[in-house]
Design a protein that fits this description.
Layout (H helix, E strand, L loop, with lengths): L4 E4 L7 H14 L3 E4 L4 H4 L9 H12 L3 E5 L7 H6 L26 H18 L5 E5 L11 H15 L2 H8 L33 H27 L7 E2 L1 E2 L8 H5 L6 E4 L7 H13 L6 E6 L17 H11 L2 E6 L26 H16 L12 E4 L2 H8 L10 H14 L4 E4 L10 E4 L9 H10 L3 E5 L21 H4 L1 E8 L8 E3 L2 E3 L1 E10 L3 E6 L8 E8 L2 E6 L1 E3 L1 H14 L12 E7 L5 E7 L5 E2 L6 E2 L9 E2 L4 E5 L2
Parallel strand pairs: 1-2, 1-9, 2-3, 3-4, 4-5, 6-7, 7-8, 8-9, 10-11, 10-12, 12-13, 13-20
Antiparallel strand pairs: 14-17, 15-16, 15-18, 17-21, 18-19, 19-20, 22-23, 23-27, 24-26, 25-27
Organism: Actinoplanes couchii
Family: Belongs to the glycosyl hydrolase 42 family.
EC number: 3.2.1.23
Length: about 650
Amino acid sequence: MKIPYGGDYNPEQWPRAVWEDDYRLFDAAGVDTLTVGVFTWGLTQPSYDKYDFAVLDGIVSRAVDGGRKICLATGTGAHPAWLAASHPEVTRVDFEGRKHRYGARHNSCPSSPVYRRLSTEIARRIAERYAGNPAIIAWHVGNEYGGACYCPICAAGFQEWLQKRYGSLEALNEAWYTTFWSHTFSDWSQIEPPSALTEHWRGPDHTAFQGITLDYQRFMSDALLANFCDEKAAIREFDSSTPVTTNFMGLYRPIDYHRWAAHLDFASWDNYPPDDRSAARMALAHDLMRGLKGGAPFWLMEQTPSVTACRDVNPLKRPGVMRLWSWQAVAHGADAVLFFQMRAGRGASEKYHGAVIGHSGRSDTRVFQEVAALGAELSALGSVTLGARTPARVALLFDWDSWWALEISDGPSRLVRYLDVVTAYHRALWTLGVDLDVVPVTASLTDYDVVVAPALHMLKGDLAERLSAVAARGGTVVSTFLSGRVDEDDNAFLSDVPGPLAGLFGIRIDEWDARDRSHVNPVAIGAATFPARLIFELVIPEGATVVGTYTGDFYTGTAAVTRNDHGQGQAWYVGTALDQAGVTSVLRPILAAHDLLGPLADLPDVETATRVAPDGTRILFVLNHGPSPAPLPAMTGIDLLTGAAPPARLAPNGVLVLRAS
């Protein structure tokens, strides 16, 4: 047993003579797992009433003969041309109301009965044909689900979804606050999808009725999930046990992955960071993916070995970076390391996308040699990390509803972006070496000493009580500006801000100031002063202790950061967008008080992460993301990659995988 290693393989794009060369190179690189069939619907079903598995049979049999494990896709990552030609209703209507024709890939209406029936049927036939093949270790449904449709079929689906959610028009009208602007609905058929033709102006984030738009985002996430569930059910008719997944896209706004998590047997995702300075952002995405299934390991389903091809500028991964980022994924819970793509395609939009094997098929390129070296390391590591979990005592709450609601809100500021706030607090925890879980707001909080809830704009269910319980038993809760503002329907609480959280934090907020990015109002915390921007809540202590104050404007001296004793613990509130150093300065003493600072918390470019294997083995990962060698303190254990004791200095892009001694 070992970490599966390989990735997306599309041999249907090349003559069969190329396949043999591929497998020779797979042997050289230590590639043992192939994801196949992702975009083969048009080949396996060339017309409505014809199925042809000859190509896919050849792909699967060659992988089996080559001793490879297979992640077999249903092929529904894009629908075929004949389907759109014979049933034009399967293509989407976009936000501006334009009916799309055949083209691209994310172009299927998720509510179309024809699309749902035929995509389910191709999944069923593939499962019937290949189920029981011992080489298949996972099923891959669809591909990178995303986008939205606003067609009449989706309108009808939305109306049906709303009837199930609210039960009556009276309840819906109350939730949507439809007495505003004479919007009261008297029949379900009157409800339109919120788009550029109805409730929106200046784009998707500008809506007259946030409740309508929020519910449509929820509906569309559920509609796409129904497509996944259709195909998974078809697979289960023939295979009751092999795990089924689909590849998520990390910090992806349109789909609420928490709503999907229960339906996947394991989470997997595609890691394509926007630049080569994204180590902290990738850590957040890894932690989010691990948190989808209660801390269970996930698969890194795709990453590029070198460059992407989907952006205006596509920087090359420098020597050692692919290895470093692969080990970072393992450090945060990955039980598979896979690439897109195994061989570079000759044409279309991804012909310049990085690949393990380039167009020339050479094995002496830097990229191939690095892939082969990592393959050798993973083979030597074996099964040590498989199934290992992160022993976190810190939780960071992540909530798609708050993300959506905050960014479609008119006021206080459209410059505040949910991910920016969450990333700042996660980055501080990451820099301080904390092992943490990123969890939904519905997760149990009983195992955590510190719970950080940045930009918790929407407060749902019993979350306020559960956060209070964390502090009451001796834990610490941290939240920020724009938290506790609205209920599940996106309506403001008829109480002091921050709504049901006011008692926990011992504060109230009557006023807030929003400014452009150039405006700075520094906040004094102890002897230090930190820049703050965008939003400035004038925090009024009602039992809380003032920790930080504004130093400018008419509210000079007003509380910006507070700490409230609650039961045996504390609740901290940060009323403004501090810079990164300011956020870190707030969290550091909190973590220190709970003895949670990481072993290398004073080395900002050096990341640490811990996993505990099923047999109790404790594994510490140390990764140097900095440009210079990092001095390390005396550390115990054996580096599983070298068999040696830890060095005194860790080279740039260096990795240690230490088994506790």
